[in-house]
Amino acid sequence: MENYNQTSTDFFLLGLLPPSKVGLFFLSLIVLMFLMALLGNLSMVLLIVLDVHLHTPMYILLSQLSLIDLNYVSTTVPKMAFNYLLGNKSISFIGCGVQSFFFLTLAGTEGLLLTCMAYDRYVAICFPLHYPTRMSKRACMLMIAGSWMTGASNSCAHTAYILHIPYCRSRAINHFFCDVPAMVSLACMDTWVYESTVFASTTLFLLFPFIAIACSYGRVLLAVFRMRSETGRKKAYWTCSTHLTVVTLYYAPFVYTYLRPRSLRSPKEDMILAVFYTILTPVLNPVIYSLRNKEVMGALRRVIQRIHSVKM
């Protein structure tokens, strides 16, 4: 086993994949998924910005989700791929802090933003007459700003803590990115108080929003069931099912990972679960929200026609 006990301040990311042909194969899949996530989310952001028909609260929130996922997947995958290909597992102390800050900011913001999107659908289906006032563009912007500010504030607190605690000689992080629980396990001090704050943050940013989303969609499905229009029911069911798919893939592994006590945690299991919310969800989000969505596909055709007419 390699020895990562050293006197420098660098950390070492042990990584997810073994140094073998199998590991290289899975790395190729991850890089392919990374490129798909970049292309899909960037396309969604540009499409929503360029087409005025999509300048509604629902799609403005969706553009923010795509922007978050675009940065989300870029925070972890490139460093993991370079470390694997170059055989250099080190990451600087400051680099680890920066990666952790952006990861926590984006994770917290996405958790709150998904709740805002659920509220948007709840109001649109259950209170359609009040939708223009409850989900005005101003209210939408306040939701977005509040999600970003709250996520960044929470991230600042956690990052400041992990950058100021004393670490033991071994700085080998058993993960493929600077995950806070994996870093805290290397501390040369009792961290049970801090671990309680991690539990509280996870409950606030993930568990409570998940419960709120589940409750709102319970009301939504009840309202959809009472609809007279079969076309309206199908459209509402599709919207709800796609959003719930995203929510489940994002929240479930995150909550399961972060709410378990340290004694029940498994580094390998944590890394595998992390693939769902750091890589798989950013890939699926643009696919789920664009396929069978007539408004998105219509906007795509209009943008393509506009580009074609300019070239002509």
TrEMBL record:
PROSITE patterns registered for this protein in UniProt: G_PROTEIN_RECEP_F1_1, G_PROTEIN_RECEP_F1_2
SUPFAM superfamilies attached to this UniProt entry: Family A G protein-coupled receptor-like (SSF81321)
MF terms (GO), sorted A to Z: G protein-coupled receptor activity; olfactory receptor activity
Record-annotated G-protein coupled receptors family 1 profile domain positions: 40-289
Family recorded in the similarity comment: Belongs to the G-protein coupled receptor 1 family.
PANTHER family with a match to the protein in the record: OLFACTORY RECEPTOR (PTHR26453)
Described purpose of this protein according to its UniProt entry: Putative odorant or sperm cell receptor.
Entry protein name: Olfactory receptor
Organism: Pteropus alecto
Lineage of the species this protein comes from: Eukaryota, Metazoa, Chordata, Craniata, Vertebrata
